[in-house]
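Hi there. Long-time user, first ticket. I'm pasting a complex I've been working with (about 594 residues overall). I'd like to know whether the download I got is complete or cut off, because the file seemed smaller than I expected. Thanks.
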Amino acid sequence: MSRRFLRNPILVALGVVLLAVWTVPILWGLLTSFKNEKEVLAYPPRVLFTPTLDNYREVLFGPTNIVPNLTTSLIVALGTTLLTVAIAVPAAYAFARLRLRGKRALGFYVLATQLVPPIGLIIPYFLILNRIGWMDSYRGLILIYLTFSLPFAIWLLVSYFEDIPREMEEAALLDRASRLQALWHVVLPQARGAIAVAVIFVFLNAWNEFLFAVVLGGARVKTVTVSMYNYINTEQTQWAQLAAAALIAMLPVIVLGLAAQKHIVHGLTAGAVKGVGRR
Amino acid sequence: MAVARQTLSIADIPAVQLAAARRRLAQAERPERRFALTLVSPAVLVLVVTTTFPLLYLLSQSLQDINLAMPGMDHYVGFENYRRMAGDSRFWAALGFTGVYTVTTVALQLVIGLGMALLILQIPRAQWAFRIAAILPIVLAPVVAGLFWRTLMLTPDFGIVDYALRAAGLGSRNWLGEPGLARISVIVIHTWQWTPFVFLYLLAALAALPSDLYEAARIDRASAWRRFIHITLPLIRPAIVVVAILRITIALSAFAAIYAATGGGPGTATEIVNLYSYRVAFAELSLGYGAAAAVVLLVLTLVVAGLLFRIRRAQ
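Hi, the file is complete. Here it is re-exported in full:
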């Protein structure tokens, strides 16, 4: 720590307060998840108590456990991620590298779809999926998840593809490799890191989604974000179980977020940072 | 050796040869264009089917009277839904609160985020702790953030925010139960969750600034405040504009955190247009009317985004 900073106790205090403000709701949730019902409602709130694993046991093995919901979220998020990457990678490569008539307009279209507010999509999807019998189904949910994951992934990948040097690809083309071969054998291996970042953020956003899941899901397809409401009803909220369930549900995204720490800023600003169709 | 340097300009090439070369080039590009089209079309097709088509359907549904409680009674009503909305004070209140919510949350995020970035820049060795702490709210599902605040933080007596204020002698308040306080609470929740994002973004922008500028200013004995106003702020303005655009569009599509914390209540106090449209469509079951509200939000978002992009280009 710089000496100048330490000399200013106000700044130190401010830093500590900020750190606390960010982490306290989550840390308090962690603490609560180890409390029994009596401790939860103790007044004043207690920091020291005998911890119990009952809430985790209830949430993972009890009659209303969230394991099926975790599985559902995993299927939906993985399905969304796989489809998104399969469609977005070739498109992003073409946007970043190739000549194409109307590319600016197409790029702008992709960017504009990213701006569509979810509430504008949920009503037509509700009516259409009802009509074709896709309510409460994995394919219905994955379909609507593509609306936010695809534009996002395309723009994220375009920005990375633009940074990959062209030399190796050009050399491969001179060696009479087809464009597809050059993309598959030369460009994709170079883009592995970028694709990993796209996978992480698409998965994260799909895992955390709530509005589409609560309206288009049901008894069969109930994601883990929706299942949080198992612990809340009008008479009583089971705080400790809610906290335990929420922390289990958030564990994958916290791990992914920390793993992708360096990319989080770039990952979440994709599209807004780069201009449209620079070539 | 003195060799006269020959420069070839395009004017020296005979026109016929030039035309032939252009043709050859266009021919060579044709496979590239075809390949590009093949790669782009699946994405564009999927987006047309999943986004554009449903939006057109939304437009047509906003001209219908659809009541889920009375199936089979759907019928075309023209602009009746919009006319009804124009006279609905609850809609105007939702639109107004959407404006207040967006402006205050984004302004707070920018001011606090920038302040924090400037502060943390002073402590290079502890930056990692702040970076990690900043990730936590960002990756949290908004519905979980809303539920945590509703229960653990803001519940009268037992929530720690309420407890802390009571301990400080300010008394217990019904944070999500009184209209004014509930509005402040949902603004605080959104600001809590997303300020770390602005912080991380601006911290990266600040860290990338050239340090020699500051040294020159320090030699000139410019005060910290003047250094900030005259050097830092102009240099990071593009970054501020980008992050502001992003945060505005996100705030306009906010839903889950408010839904989880207040459900739009008490009454209709914390309804932004998203929640208004949702409640009208799925709680009161009039989907046509809800669709009209969603169309208004769609138009609003596109207009705001268009304006912001214009501002950004002008910079």
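A couple of notes from our side: The mean pLDDT of chain B is 88. Strands of chain B lie at 64-65, 75-76.
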